[in-house]
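Good morning,

Both structures are done.
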Amino acid sequence: MGTYILRRLALIIPTLIGIMLLNFIIVQAAPGGPIEQLIAEMEGLGGNALARAGGGDMGGEVSAASGESRGARGLPPELLAEMEARYGFDKPAHERFLGMLKDYATFDFGDSFFRDRSVVELIIDKMPVSISLGLWSTLVIYLISIPLGIRKAVKDGSRFDVWSSSAIVVGYAIPGFLFAILLIVLFAGGSYFDWFPLRGLTSPDFDTLTWYQKVVDYFWHLALPVTANVIGGFATLTLLTKNSFLDEIGKQYVVTARAKGLDEKQVLYGHVFRNAMLIVIASLPGVLVSLFFTGSLLIEVIFSLDGLGLLGFEAALNRDYPVIFGTLYIFTLMGLLLKLISDITYVLVDPRIDFESREGA
């Protein structure tokens, strides 16, 4: 297992480089860029934007902006050259990419083009919100989905299975952001009840509260966002758990266990559970990455939660390339590590699995 882990860790490096290179090429081909946006701001705001263009070390690594569109603006060539040098666009694309990889190897992501802060500071500042939303959503999803999926497998075809499947399909069909709006209308002062707060992760007077009041306030603010985040995720995992258990229940070893006189709980949790949970465990990294960094984007926007999803969305709109590539690097690295952790968990759940022998076959 140790050799397999070392091999997988070594594969992370070329995988990261490949993903970064692919996105770098896409950004090169995309129209527009931070310099174009700054030029447009100059034309609209005059002196304020000119002062902004001349000050601050913005430090850029990526995207080439269109030279034709810049020249068409009629701005002094000296100013355009200064802006290109300040953003790092005066170098060839391959030099920018190699320099980016060198900096990213030491987790030096540079500074945001438009926020006057380092990318690392921005990520650290937004991380608690996304972790809170993603972690509690994942926990609730698994606490609901696994028992419900097992129950549905045991009661397959019963009235409980039919009506619960109907509720799951309806929940899956409703997008999380629409459900979030519905929750706001019903419970956050929209049209009916005003039971839950609408903005932020904590109340303005959070620092003055006692420790237990802080805990209550924290979960009070998370109640609606987590509920909206869970609605789609638990449906998929519940059906995955049910189908996995149904597949295992029909196998010969279960028939043999029952023939030996084992009761249904011993068969279900002593034999079936370990094998059926493998596919559920395998889905955990995807669930975590989705909830942490992508699935919660609209939820963060709707509930005014300033997390990583909102940060990445705003960076894409503003062509803030250091933030885009810095968050992409972090997300990809975490996804690859979570996948490796998933494989290790496979072995812990079922020691019969040997990844090294499979790779050598």
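Second structure follows.
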Amino acid sequence: MQAVLLLAALPMLAGAWLPWVLLRPNRLAPGEYLRLPPVWVAALLVLALLPLAAARWRPALTWVPATLALLLAVWLLGTRTGAALVGQAAFARASAASGAWLTLLGAGVALYGARLCTRAAGRPAWTGLLWAAGVGALLLNGTLSNWSVLVEARSEGPRWVQELAQHLRLVSTALGLAVLIGAPLAVWASGRERVAAAVLGVANAVQTIPSLALLGLLIAPLSALANAFPALRSAGVSGIGVAPALTAMTLYALLPVLRNGVVALLGVPAGAVDAARGMGMTAAQRFWRVELPLALPVWLSGVRQAAVLLVGVAAVASLIGAGGLGTYIFKGLQSAATDLILLGAVPAALLAVAVDAALRGLETLLGRRLGRAA
């Protein structure tokens, strides 16, 4: 635990001395790097070392300096960007520089180390709720309103909401298709060794193709299908857009759904199946009442992996006109606008974390219920 806190202190110590704000006259122009005043440098240096001292003398209280370090870093980012924009034109931008990012990284690692220390001390770890509430309060009271990423978010407005909704639609639709296709295949392959090897081999082969290459390979066949069958074209199938994006994303999501499904079904205890057979259950009853409930937690783990994978692949799909948060990532790359990149990348990363946490919680809940039933 102290090793984790030491790793947290190093980027915070470096971040205190490095530039904190990049002030640019507009989104694209080169700018000027601004450093923190000495008093705040000293405050960050102290807070960087306090979690280490607390872990040595009062492990249960390590979360206090760790939480303060994160909240101070976020508050400083908001106040320093606001101070940098005083007297500047309306289209000037103040973004986080290397010092701010390193300090935020170190504070995040310190919070993780504090969570370990709190658990080791036998007390509940409330650090996540505390820092989330603190950061939320800073967002709500406008402290971060001058940060360039939030400025870009306000300027994009409804368009950003539309792209976020499109990202969610792509992920949920592809995941649903992957489960609808992969679940029956997994059930069929779980009792047939050769079929399982063939199906998993094909799914593995698809995973080796880079996402951008797969999207490109789908343009020609989907365009040909749309030209050959006008009904498909009327339904929205074409070489670019949503159709190839959903096709590629579904193919990518098949492997974790298939693999975990086969492993989960093969891992059902033979004794449970024999007991169900001895009770006179039919094959369908054994599957729905015994095999599927026991296999579901492991199978759901594959669905979770597929969902997190799709959040990232959906960002690449914007290159062929499918929309989503990747629109901002690639628009920012084309114009060298870091703020636009973050406007797409940060929500996508948070979405992946939220999806992973929600499905992981569902796995845990199912595991506990099955444990009680056993």
